[in-house]
Predict the 3D structure of the following.
Amino acid sequence: MKNSGSMVCVGTGMMLGAHISPRSRSHIEQADVVFAAVSDPVVELWLQTMNKDVRSLQTYYREGKSRHETYREMVEAMLAEVRLGNRVCGAFYGHPGVFAFAPHKVIEQARIEGFDAHMEPGISAEDCLYADLGIDPGRFGCQHYEASQFMFYRRRIDPSAYLILWQVGIAGDRSLRRYSTGAAYKQLLVELLAEHYPPAHEVIIYEAATLPISKPRVEKLALSKVIGAELHLQSTMVLPPCQAMLRDEAMLARIEELERVLNSNLTAVPTQQ
Amino acid sequence: MSNVIQFLESMGKDASLGNMSPEEYAAAVKALPIDDVAQHALLNRDANTLSDSIGAYKKMMMILVPAEDDGGEGKDDDKDGDKKQEEEEKSDN
């Protein structure tokens, strides 16, 4: 038997008023308690117009405090209300399941404890990026990494596909206690990328618009200039391909041979009347 | 609902409002029953001043995911990956 409390994590989308789904909005309106983690202060005020009990998750952040601890506290705050039997809604900017730890964790833990818990998708920064930059990830392929993770681990970069680095504004932060990154860290990131891309390769710094009065940030610059670029928490770096895709002639030959065999089998089978 | 929030929500969800000409936009903002600071902020499309004028948080943290899981799970995964690669290399020889 399920316990009476419930947990839902919804996405508010990126832009106030423009992206929230009717279902996500109804979850916010019908919840007993709403916890909000959004990227714009005005968006938080907007959420407060939908429910009389909206609690900001901003209070758990603090410069110098490990974000692991912050995320654990967020999860516990939401679960405490679920355990009291409340219908709890976590309203997260963008998509609640994309580059977001607490929503996945709180749903997992709520289910373990016998509560109903699920996620409603939202329009993410990635979705806005494709629209604003005119990029189709299916055209050349697209690799996505969290910028610091990209620096900490060896990854196989494909310079014939798009490379998109998220949270580049804190690239190289091992402490999870900082909210900005210095030129020396950006230098290391650029050096890492320069193993695959020429220094003059044009990259894009992107920030989605969060208010309908704002425009997205689309700043094109040479890779080498990223060291001196102004990067924010919401900045994303996009590296377009610098090489043409290489055809895999061996695989194409195998596919051709397979098709030849299949076609010959088809012609050998008599048709039934 | 505050008039500013209501105006922004309308702009967000109504394509015709979102695509107003500069003149239409200025007229719509000037028609709002809001204080001068908020009005100027809207006219200048100045999100920071607008936030201040309606009492929103000054600074928002929007980082929601760590680069690595707590407890170094990523490192363990990496080690496993290295072991598998070593085994594959051995079996190739």
Q: What stands out?
A: Strands of chain A lie at 6-11, 33-37, 54-56, 87-92, 116-120, 142-146, 162-166, 202-207, 217-222, 236-239. Chain A touches chain B through 48 residues (CB under 8 Å). The two ends of chain A are 57 Å apart (CA to CA). Chain A has nine helices and ten strands.
